[in-house]
Write a structure and sequence with these properties.
heterodimer; A: alpha/beta; Rossmann fold; 5 helices; B: alpha+beta; Beta-Lactamase; 4 domains; 6-stranded antiparallel beta sheet; about 45% helix; elongated; disordered N terminus; disordered C terminus
Chain lengths: ~140, ~600
């Protein structure tokens, strides 16, 4: 079971992600939720165990929220894999995130793609990468 | 004017005195009215006449109208007198002088066949014409006396001098009226923000200033390049917006293409004349004067005036050189005002686009998030339905109803999913629309970019006959390659979608130097090298009346899409400081021409330009 933190300012989005993550794989993931950057930072700080994966929305309080979350997550544990969610294709910030060490970014709205399945795929790869890194 | 008999020494002296007084009068009197009255009083004093009047020729009717009187016996009725020079019984000596342009002296009016009786007691009468700066008779000064043989050649010489003073004063007055009109129109036009109001105001002022019933204004329609009537002070006004000339068509079209003023006494004799949309009966001769309306970037249109031939055949109602100068001045002011209105509208357009952009960005973001959440629900629903289907499959006791229900729900889920995807496509269109102006520039080879775009967009399509003609070498282009590709592929997609049964697409690139383009409406920077992309198809094309709208957001003739496609294309081209135009002919296919400024200026590119 992996520990995942989801940060998004839309409750519907948080719940949809939680639901999907909790039934993923054989045993599902353990999911924590945060609705703001502050809540997210608090969750990172308060948690005894580190999160394996952090999924954060890019644009919450402002267009840079995702970048701040990414920095906070990496500060807490440099091996935490961070996946950025972007609505409305704020690709420029996504590229910044990649340069800052995000595992990947996923556009929320891609026509003809079940983004949830895409996200699950990316999460399982991120977890795989993290396992490999931790093993070393 | 006929030769006068030599005035006597006494006459010469009094003539000299009169001239001096007249000059003083002209300098001190503020109104023409006062000046005329004083001049007439002077005439009576100098000649010992009983009554005097000045009659002015009315342009349109060619009749003489009394404008000022002096002496005893004038009534309201005879002050309103109209003399008709072309009617022998109604013209009198005054009308006769107007026609001949010669002074006239009658020592015994009762025996004079030209005399028209206005005052019972008149015995002697003399009349002299006054002229305008063009040498045309504009009116007559008339003096009578109750005494027979009251006037001699000295008196005639005196009033001839007075008349020429009157002519100058009236000409100056006319000049002042025109000047005031010009000042007024300048102020008026600056306050008007609609082209049609501007046009209406201009025709009214020009008609007044040039004393003609008919003034019409035409402006070039950017999309169709037709010269379209905007307003007219004649009956033609009801056709505003509906009629017009092609460039070079008729006299009016010629003014547009040549930029020259045309002034004709009888336009019917000119080979360029078509008589297509005359202000008056085309069979009737009208003097014609037309001037180009010149704006900052070239000729915007044409302003023309026409004046029907006066009913008085003897009177030349033609336009003069000073009329021509006047019209050119009005045209210049009008051109500047049109420029102002257009640039105001353009900045309004930019603002509107920015507002659209912000609205699009915000709503797209919110809708995008919501859609993502719904996608999560659908994902969950699909998962549950898959479980459900598996259970039903494994359960031999499951009812047909349950199986059917399960299949039905599956179908609905798919439909909702399709709807969501469609929504996301719209969001993408929104995003591209907003992002169109945010460029990430790099230097590229337009031909390679074009080839890639064609390959990616069209792929292999046997139903489309593709011709690519690339000028090589081509100056380099500094652009956002991704955005430009997006714009070009939108145009290619468009071409394909309008030719469902196949057709031909022709793509070409070329380069040329922007020149001073007075006469065409393209706003190219002189000395700059431009790259041109032409994409032509054999689809239905764009109807002339829609050409101006196709680049507006939400304009679409297709059921599919938001109608943002071409506005995105235009946004991208605009952001590159380029120009895009649809120049095809409806029915023969669409043709999009894109002009983009090349990276380098003319000097560096002359070599490659020669290779084109």
């Amino acid at each position: 079971m992996s520990r995942i933190l989801v940060i998004d300012d839309e409750e519907d989005v948080r719940l949809a992600l939680q639901r999907r993550l909790e039934r993923e794989g054989h045993e599902g993931h353990e999911v924590s939720l945060a609705g703001t950057t502050a809540e997210g930072e608090a969750a990172l700080a308060d948690s005894e165990e580190v999160f394996d994966v952090v999924i954060t929305d890019m644009s919450m309080e402002d267009g840079e929220s995702g970048v701040r979350m990414l920095k906070a997550a990496i500060q807490r544990d440099v091996f935490t894999e961070v996946i950025i969610l972007t609505a409305y294709g704020n690709v420029r910030n996504a590229v910044t995130c990649m340069q800052l060490g995000a595992y990947d970014y996923v556009e929320k709205n891609i026509p003809d793609v079940d983004v949830y399945e895409l996200l699950m795929l990316k999460i399982s790869r991120a977890l795989e990468q993290r396992r490999l890194i931790l093993k070393q | 004017m006929s030769e006068q008999t030599e005035p006597t020494a006494k006459g010469e002296r009094s003539l000299h005195l009169i001239c001096n007084r007249l000059l003083r009068l002209a300098l001190t009197q503020h109104s023409t009215h006062d000046y005329l009255r004083e001049a007439l009083e002077e005439a009576l004093r100098a000649t010992g006449g009983t009554r005097a009047f000045v009659a002015r020729i009315e342009q349109e009717s060619g009749e003489l109208v009394v404008v000022e009187t002096a002496g005893e016996g004038w009534t309201r009725r005879n002050r309103r007198l109209r003399l008709v020079p072309h009617n022998e019984t109604q013209r009198g000596i005054t009308g006769y002088v107007a026609i001949t342009g010669e002074p006239y002296l009658s020592s015994d009016v009762q025996a004079d066949p030209h005399h028209l009786r206005i005052f019972e007691d008149a015995r002697s009468e003399m009349a002299v014409p006054y002229f305008d700066t063009e040498g045309r008779v504009r009116g007559v000064l008339n003096i009578d006396s109750v005494a027979p043989h009251a006037f001699n050649s000295v008196h005639l010489a005196i009033i001839t001098t007075l008349a020429s003073g009157i002519g100058s004063a009236l000409a100056f007055d006319e000049f002042r009226v025109r000047e005031r009109l010009l000042v007024d129109i300048g102020r008026d036009l600056a306050a008007i923000t609609e082209i049609d109001q501007l046009a209406s105001r201009v025709v009214a002022v020009a008609a007044k200033a040039l004393q003609c019933e008919a003034c019409s204004v035409f402006l070039t329609d950017e999309a169709t390049e037709m010269l379209v009537l905007q307003a007219s002070s004649s009956a033609l006004n009801s056709e505003a917006g509906k009629i017009g000339y092609k460039p070079g068509e008729g006299l009016t079209g010629c003014v547009l293409t040549t930029g020259e003023t045309i002034r004709l006494d009888d336009p019917r004799t000119d080979p360029r004349w078509t008589g297509k949309y005359p202000e008056f009966d085309a069979n009737e001769n009208c003097a014609y004067l037309a001037a180009p309306v010149i704006g900052r970037k070239g000729i915007l249109g044409v302003i023309r005036v026409s004046r029907p031939r006066s009913r008085a055949a003897w009177f030349r109602a033609t336009f003069t050189e000073s009329d021509e100068r006047m019209l050119r001045t009005i045209a210049g002011q009008f051109g500047a005002s049109v420029d102002n209105v257009l640039s105001f509208n353009r900045s309004l357009h930019t603002e509107r686009m920015a507002a659209w952009g912000e609205l699009s960005a915000k709503s797209a973001h919110m809708i995008g998030n919501r859609t993502f959440a719904i996608k999560g629900d659908i994902n969950e629903l699909k998962y549950r339905m898959a479980n459900c289907a598996e259970r039903l499959k494994a359960d031999p006791t499951a009812s047909a109803f349950d199986r059917e229900l399960c299949a039905k729900i599956d179908e609905l889920v798919l439909s909702v999913e399709r709807g969501i995807y469609r929504l996301e496509e719209i969001l993408r269109e929104f995003r591209d629309f907003v992002m169109a102006t945010q460029l990430k520039l790099s230097t590229v080879d337009l031909n390679s970019l074009m080839r890639e775009t064609v390959k990616e967009t069209l792929g292999y399509r046997p139903s489309i006959h593709l011709t690519e003609r690339y000028a090589d070498p081509l100056p380099k282009l500094r652009c956002d390659a991704g955005k430009l590709k997006r714009a070009l592929s939108e145009l290619l997609d468009n071409a394909v979608s309008f030719m469902p049964d196949g057709g031909a697409i022709e793509i070409s690139t070329s380069s040329f130097a922007g020149e001073d383009t007075v006469g065409s409406n393209k706003a190219l920077v002189p000395g700059r090298v431009y790259l041109m992309i032409v994409i032509r198809d054999t689809g239905p094309g764009v109807p002339a009346d829609m050409k101006s709208q196709i680049f507006n957001p939400f304009y679409t003739s297709r059921a599919k899409g938001m109608g943002l496609g071409l506005s995105i294309v235009k946004g991208i081209v605009d952001a590159h400081h380029g120009l895009i135009e649809e120049t095809g002919e409806a029915g023969a296919g669409a043709q999009f021409e894109i002009l983009l400024p090349a990276e380098t200026v003319l000097k560096d590119e002359e070599e490659s330009h020669d290779c084109d």
